[in-house]
Amino acid sequence: MRRWNRNSVLIGSVLVGAIALAGCSSSDSTTATHEDTGGHTGTEVHFSYTGETGPLHWGSLDTEWEVCGTGDAVNVSATYDEHSTQSPIDIVTAGVALRADNGTNAKAIDLSGYTTPTDWTIANNGHTVQVSYPTGGGEMAFKNATLGDKHYELLQYHFHTTSEHSVDGASYAMEMHLVHKEVGADGHDVLDAEGNNVLAVLGVLFDDGTNYSDLGADNPFLASMLSNTGLTTNGGWPEETDTVAAAGTSMDVAYALPTTIPATLAANGITDAMTFYNYTGSLTTPPCTESVQDWLVLAVPVTVSHTQASDFMAAIGGHHNNRPIQELNGRTVTMGMN
Ligand SMILES: [Zn+2]
């Protein structure tokens, strides 16, 4: 179904269009001044997930990364520590309000065109493994009175282990982030007041059976993706020197999304597999730009096996790549379902 050609190149020279980004970074040139910050180019600042270049120090590693440590001082008047809107967060379900307009729309999130793009690449940038779509990877639309009739274009998706978001304090084995930019009716990118692309990131939690006993089997989407890389190490995850390019094949990203609901979640009233938690936040890697107008974290996790998760961790160097939980700072989290 999905046959990919292997084309290994040195990651240091890989800039797939403008989209060779680390973690939750946007791809547009108006924002991406640090799109390859893995230290591979020799001139960029290096960040990591532990020690002196770890998350607690990101804000002081580069003047353009200050919001990683303080939050965005431009959007607020003073004491911006208390107003930062950084990601990820712990989603406390007891404090989540069902959207007032829930149920008034046939579909709160409408995905289309995810199967058609054929110009993607998959690459390991040292921070994550990322699949990029230089010309757009399908469209996500909000058909929701509160979220608005907005249209987004998929730029890339990538993975974290363990999950970045947690739900009621519970982490998950992995989390997938599908990064979209908003596109206006005229076809142009929608920018915020600071000139950054307005982003929406769809987060999918992967459970290895730790939180839900009916999960923990191999994830079929990952299995399909990895079986077609042609790579044999680390279960097929690309290593840091591997970039694999599509050869006219498409990949159904929607296949990665949940379709079945774990029994205990269903018993708690989650009746729609695309139920989402929604809040405003930031990129979770430097420069930590607070341009993610809509984080949409799906309430229903998908399955992943211990082997798949550990293979991914091995591929990115044998360490976790999740930023720690950030303060909510008065933000509200809402929930919507189709
Ligand atoms: Zn991410």
Brief sketch in words of this structure:
The chain is mainly β and 338 residues long. Helices cover 9% and strands 23% of the residues.
Keywords:
single chain; 338 residues; mainly beta; Carbonic Anhydrase II; 14-stranded mixed beta sheet; globular; disordered N terminus; binds zinc ion
SSE layout:
Layout: E1 5-6, H1 58-61, H2 67-70, E2 90-91, E3 97-98, E4 109-112, E5 121-124, E6 129-132, E7 139-144, E8 148-160, E9 166-167, E10 174-182, E11 199-207, H3 220-227, E12 243-245, H4 263-267, E13 276-281, E14 292-298, E15 302-303, H5 306-315, E16 334-336
Bound molecules: zinc ion (ZN).
Residues 23-24, 158, 160, 177, 284 line the site of zinc ion (ZN).
Percent of residues in beta strands: 15-25%
| Order of helical and strand elements | EHHEEEEEEEEEEHEHEEEHE
CATH architecture descriptor text = Roll
pLDDT < 50 stretches: 1-22, 26-43, 72-81
CATH class: Alpha Beta
Q: How widely separated are the two ends? A: 30 Å
Mean pLDDT: 81
- The Cα radius of gyration reads 19 Å
Overall 3D shape: globular
Helix content percent band: under 10%
Number of strands: 16
Number of helices, counting only DSSP H or I runs of 4 residues or more: 5
The CATH topology label is: Carbonic Anhydrase II
The hetero molecules present are: zinc ion
